[in-house]
Amino acid sequence: MTNFDLRDFTPYLLSLAAETSSAGFQTYYKGRYGMLRTEWRVVFHLGRYGPMTAKEICDRARMHKTKVSRAVSALEVKRYLSRREQAKDRRHETLRLTAEGGRVFADLYEEAARYDAELLAQFTDEEHVVLQKCLTKLAGI
Amino acid sequence: MTNFDLRDFTPYLLSLAAETSSAGFQTYYKGRYGMLRTEWRVVFHLGRYGPMTAKEICDRARMHKTKVSRAVSALEVKRYLSRREQAKDRRHETLRLTAEGGRVFADLYEEAARYDAELLAQFTDEEHVVLQKCLTKLAGI
DNA sequence: AAATATTGGTTGATTTTGTAACTAACAACA
DNA sequence: TGTTGTTAGTTACAAAATCAACCAATATTT
Asked: Closest Cα to residue A42, out of A74, A86, A64, A72?
C-alpha cells in the first residue's frame, strides 16, 4: 500500500483509542479511590466473578503475575480485599473483596457500565457489533 | 445494563487489542534497531511527513513533550536524525532524518504496511471501514 | 526599556512497569 | 526417601513513564 498514513496504522489507532477511553474512566477509580488500573482490574474480577486466587486473575485478566501481586498488596493495604491460604494447598490464597471493597466495586461497576454505554452511544448497533467482534479478534480472546 | 462483563467494557477491550497488536510490531523496531515505541513514532513522523519541530510532533502524534524530547535525544545518539536551530526563532529546532535514519524509516514503513495488511486480512472490507471509523472517533481524531 | 508572561524544550525526582531471580509448597518419580 | 521439577507468589533491580520544576528565547504589557 502506498501513501500509508499513521492514522491508517491499526496498532497506532488502537493505542490512541485505548489511551483516550481509558483516561476518561481513570478519573473514577483514581479520583475517588486512588486506585491504579491494575487495581481496578483486580477489583472488577473479584467483584464480578467472585473470590479467586491471584493466578486465576492473571489468566482471566491477562495480567502479569507481578502486576497482580502488587495490585493485591495495594488493595489489601486499602482494606478492599482479604486473602486466605487454602488448607489443602498452601501455595494458593483465595482473594475476596471486603465489605468496603464490595461497595467500591459496586460504585465503579455502575460507572463502568454507564461510561461504556456513553462511549457506544455514538455508534449504531451494527457498528457496535462489528467493533466488538474486531477488537475481540485483535485482542486474541 | 445488567450482567455487564469485563469483555464488554470497551476501554478494556481496546487496551487488550492495542497491547497485542503493538507487541507484534514491536519486534521490528525493537529487534532490528533497538528503538522504543516513542522513537518509532518520531521516526515515522519525520519520515512520512518531512522535517518538523519537536512541538509539531507532540501535537500530531499526541505525545507529551518529555517523551518526544527523550526520543529525539536517543535518535540523535543513534544518528538517525539531526537537529538545527531555526534562525528567526532560536527556540525552535527543525528535526530531520539522516540518510541512515531514512533507511530505517523505509524499512519499518514497509513492515508497518505489511503488518497492518496482515492484521486486517481477517476482516472484510466493510468491517475494516467500520473499525477504522469507530477507532477514529474513540481516539478523538 | 523594564517587567511580566508565554513558548519550546530539557532535566530531575518520583512512580509505575518489566525482567529475572528467588522462596516456599507441592508433585513426580527413581 | 531423596532428588528433581513445577507451581503460586514475592522481591530486587533496571527500564520507562509521569509530573513538576526549570532554562533560555521571544512576546506582550506597562
From this structure: A72
B25–A141 C-beta distance less than 8 A: no
The pLDDT tens digits for B68-117 are 999 999 999 999 999 999 999 999 999 999 999 999 999 999 999 999 99
> Phi/psi of residue A92, each to 5°?
-85, 135
Residue ranges of domains in chain A, CATH in brackets: 6-139 (1.10.10.10)
The answer to whether B63 CB sits below 7 Å from nucleic acid chain C is no
Q: In terms of Cα–Cα distance, which of A1, A29, A11, A2 is closest to A115? A: A29
Query: How far lies A48's CA from each of A21, A33, A109, in Å?
Result: 21, 18, 9
Determine the pLDDT at residue B109. Answer: 97
Reported confidence tier of residue B1, pLDDT bands at 50, 70, 90 = low
The mean per-residue pLDDT over the stretch A17-36 comes to 96
Residues near B116 by beta carbon (within 8 Å), at least 6 away in sequence: A1, A4, A8, A9, A10, A11
d(CA B25, CA A15): 13
Model confidence at A141, pLDDT cuts 50, 70, 90, reads: confident
Count of CB atoms within 10 A of residue A55's CB?
A: 13
pTM score:
0.93
Nearest residue to D15, CA vs C1'?
B36
Inter-chain touch A6–B141, beta carbons under 8 Å:
no
Nearest to residue B69, comparing CAs of B85, B57, B51, B86? B57
